[in-house]
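User: I'm curious whether this sequence folds into something compact or stays loose and floppy. Could you predict its structure so I can see for myself?
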Amino acid sequence: MTPNYSTYAQFDKVRQSVSELLGKLASSFLQLESNKRAESLMLTQKSLLEDAFRILILGEFSRGKSTLINAILGENVLPMKIAPCTAVITKVCFGESKKALLQFRDGQKEVLDLITIPDALKKRITINDDSHSPIEYCEVQYPLPLLRNGVEIVDSPGLNESEIRSEITCGFFAQSDAMIFVLNCEHAMAASERSFIDNELRDRDLRDVFFLWNRFDAIRESPEDIADIQRLSREKLESRLNGQMRVFYVSARDALRGRLNSDLNALESSNIQSFETALEDFLTKERGRVKLRGPLKLAMNAVKQGLNEVLPNRENLAKTPLQALRTLYAEQAPKLESAERMQAKIVRAIDRKGDAIKRQSKSMIQLIHSEMESGIIRICNQADIKFLDAALQQESARNRLIEQYSKWATPRLNAWKANEYDAFLRDSFAELESELSDEVQDLVEALESLQSMVDESTHSPEESIDTNRSLRPVDPPATGNSLSKLFDLATDDRVNGVAATGLTLAAGIGIAIFHLPVLIVASSLLALGAGNALFGAKKRVQQVRDDAIAFVTDALETSRHKMTNATTEMIDSKLNLIRSQVTDRLGFKVDEARSQVEAAIRKKEEAESKAETELARLASVRQNLQNIEAELQAVASLYSIE
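Assistant: Here's the prediction. I'll summarize afterward.
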């Protein structure tokens, strides 16, 4: 019984249409000798086609994640009884044949044939201890309809297996379009699951998170158990979802059996179809709008630039005598070279400032974590630990120290983020804008001067042509006080949102670390007499202090690496946006100013066409652009993209 994924297929059809329009648009700009702009459009086309809906499956071991994936796909793709030592992220995506690709940490790769050796995958992605798996990730390819429509499903290690594997899973948050958190109706909600939701998901917009209570068949006949699960959902989950219907009660086992055996009753009783419909609707509409917005806006802006700027330039050049074009190019060449040098200088300045921002960011993170480490040492050394607690309740005594530390650390970290780190990022990007202001304005003015020169050199009062002769862009680069428009993406407030970088772990350390593994006092200690317990109490008091210090220090070290890496990636992302504004938006104009005149001279020198023939060719390009514009507007209207 093959699931019906019609909405995914409809979205994929729209995506293919937009891709074709990008290809046609790139072809039109190649005809106008605007090669850099055409290349940018082709890269966008490639990225759009490769961009899949990625669904991350979360949950602790034994919650039925693999069974759920198989039920969604309608086939036994993943082994369903892998031991809790699975430590590999497994991505399921489309492929013409059934196989698994293993990427090892040392760079080696291995291909498993899942047709001839179905159990090969199970044997290769399990380990027997808490170390890193030698395999970095696994990609399973299957020729299934859902996957063919651009959906990828990522099966993650169990969240309760180890801290290392939980970190692997959390690293995929930003890469996912939707997350499915799988719970178990038979075990209500474990403390570790509540902790993960409260901490790792605390600062997320949960619109992309679906909570799935699996094994509903186990409590289906018990109204009391159902009421308990629904009450828990209302209190712990629904209250955070802002009215979104994101909690479902299903039986993945029944759903899989129903699809494998074409058993409609089993499939209906599984309740999985309402969940799949909600997920499909969310991905194809909400996330689909996001995936299409960038390519559509890029294409629509390119069409406007082509119709209102590039084509009028080319039409004017087609009517200009050969000698006038040669004179024009001779005048242009030094200015074009100067504009290219200015552009390169701006890019170097962005890179230098970016390196400085990243160095200072790393230093600030190091300093705050050093302060946090000093804090736990000071608090532990000053704490009054009772001898009896130290001897008989070492774990409890240590946790009280950690709680006391948390009460000091949390407000300090929050104040640091709000008053120091966020301010540093805002000021740094503001300084970058200020430093580049003059250079960017000079480049913009140089380009405008080139455009004016082309306009004056190619336009004769006695000549007339039924086209728009304006050589100014529809959305010109900002100058002067409005320069900030050029950097609107780089100075977005989201650049300061470091909650997802690891600071949350540090800021909430008082909560988070209580759910990490703790040392258990040996049972033999309870057999000691009171005298013996007190005999070594002084040593045990120091041991409690040392344990608390080591525990917090390890957590802070993890937090420091996590935050440094994530903030560096975030800063690089924003710098790339700034750089692209200079290299693309302005770079297109440099490229077009040179290539269009060169092409016009070449055509005239080779006597390939007369002005009338060239104008007719350009009119055909204009018609193509107008047709593309109409089709782009239709897609944008369909997805409410302005």
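Summary: Confidence is low (pLDDT under 50) at residues 161-165, 460-536. The domain at 52-270 is CATH 3.40.50.300 (Rossmann fold).
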